[in-house]
Design brief:
- The chain has 339 residues and is α+β, with helices and mostly antiparallel strands.
- The chain has a domain of 202 residues.
- 29% of the residues lie in helices and 21% in strands.
- The chain is built from nine helices and 13 strands.
- Strand 2 and strand 3 form a beta hairpin.
- It starts with 5 loop residues before the first helix and ends in a 10-residue tail after the last strand.
- The structure holds 2-oxoglutaric acid.
């Protein structure tokens, strides 16, 4: 059979009947070095998130050989760290003034301003289900304009410090140097939903990589070339996985043709995360200091909450049928202060 192009692959992996053959989907857990080249993250300095991230020298990092610049890190998060980002994504990031997909024609202001609270307090089961299924994205920092695809200074809110600092840490560990997370889309995918093929080209700095953090249920991620006529590579993304689109991959077509139930639930085993807490006596770095000052209270408090199963239970239940993806971009060029 002739090789499928991006459009055909999207259709193939999206199909319900018959269900697609997934044997060609790249699974880094079983991939050979011919497909994925392993490499080590740079480990100088301390891990500013010891309870959230495994130590960088333990990360499993790969470059996908037929997709130069496509980096994959297999779940560098602790179980507690996964819980932390799920709570931030579900409870906090969709709150006003951040922008969400829910529209005033369909929902009351209280729902749009604080979706998780409205969802949790909804009494009518049908309305609750509707609220659950309706949340599809929240935008942070420079808000993505889905129609014009142009960022503007007038559509911008403060970017969360914890997310900015963690992304900066990943950028440093992968050798990208300076990185400033300035826009994010938090995508919510109920099982069975998809994201169609697109490129991300609205940013002033198209050389700065795009970081993508996945939590919850499993997905097939498709990445092709600069047009939809070229062939695509399909990869499994599981909870905790990080994808970085850099260099030649930065402007390539990508999509999520399938979100499916995973039997792994790496956010469950908190015992594991406590064993990955790393060195206490490492030297503090200046960029971590600011993060710690600004977020340490929130971080410590939320991490404590996340250890509590009764606090975690509603998030666990939401995650059983949902995939979350936090997709991060640097918008401005190095040295630029506004658009
Ligand atoms: O969900 C994903 O893995 C990809 C999301 C994405 O491509 C985007 O937000 O632009």
């Amino acid at each position: 059979m002739a090789e499928r192009n991006f459009k055909e692959s999207f259709k193939f992996y999206k199909a319900r009947f018959p269900a697609p053959d997934l044997s060609e989907v790249l699974d880094v857990d079983n991939a050979s070095e011919e497909t994925c080249s392993p490499f080590k993250a740079q480990t100088s300095g301390s891990n500013p998130f010891p309870l959230i991230l495994k130590p960088p020298d333990k990360w499993l990092c790969y470059e996908v050989n037929n997709r130069p610049g496509l980096i994959f890190i297999r779940n560098p998060f602790t179980a507690l760290g996964q819980r932390y980002w799920v709570v931030r994504s579900v409870r906090d990031y969709p709150q006003a003034p951040n922008v969400v997909n829910l529209i005033p024609k369909k929902f009351e202001k209280e729902v749009i301003d604080d979706w998780w609270r409205a969802f949790r307090s909804a009494k009518d089961p049908k309305f609750r289900e509707n609220l659950k299924a309706s949340m599809r994205w929240a935008t942070l920092g420079y808000h993505h304009d889905w129609d014009t695809k142009v960022y503007s200074e007038s559509m911008k809110n403060v970017f969360p410090t914890d997310l900015r600092e963690m992304t900066k840490f990943f950028a440093k560990a992968l050798g990208y140097g300076k990185y400033s997370a300035e826009a994010a889309i938090v995508n919510f995918y109920p099982l069975g939903t998809t994201l169609s093929g697109h490129t991300d080209h609205s940013e002033a700095d198209l050389d700065a990589p795009l970081f993508s953090f996945s939590f919850g249920q499993k997905a097939i991620f498709l990445i092709g070339g600069p047009t939809k006529e070229e062939p695509a590579t399909a990869l499994f993304l599981r909870s905790g996985d990080v994808v970085v689109m850099s260099k030649q991959s930065r402007l390539c077509y990508h999509a999520v043709p399938r979100v499916m139930k995973d039997c792994l639930e790496p956010w469950k085993n908190l015992g594991e995360s406590s064993t990955t807490v790393c060195e206490k006596d490492e030297v503090e770095q200046p960029n971590c200091k600011k993060m710690k000052e600004e977020t340490s209270d929130l971080l410590a408090e939320l991490l404590d909450d996340c250890r509590d199963d009764s606090f975690w239970k509603p998030f666990q239940s939401y995650l059983e049928t949902t995939r979350i993806n936090i997709n991060i971009r640097q918008v401005l060029k190095d040295g630029q202060t506004s658009l």
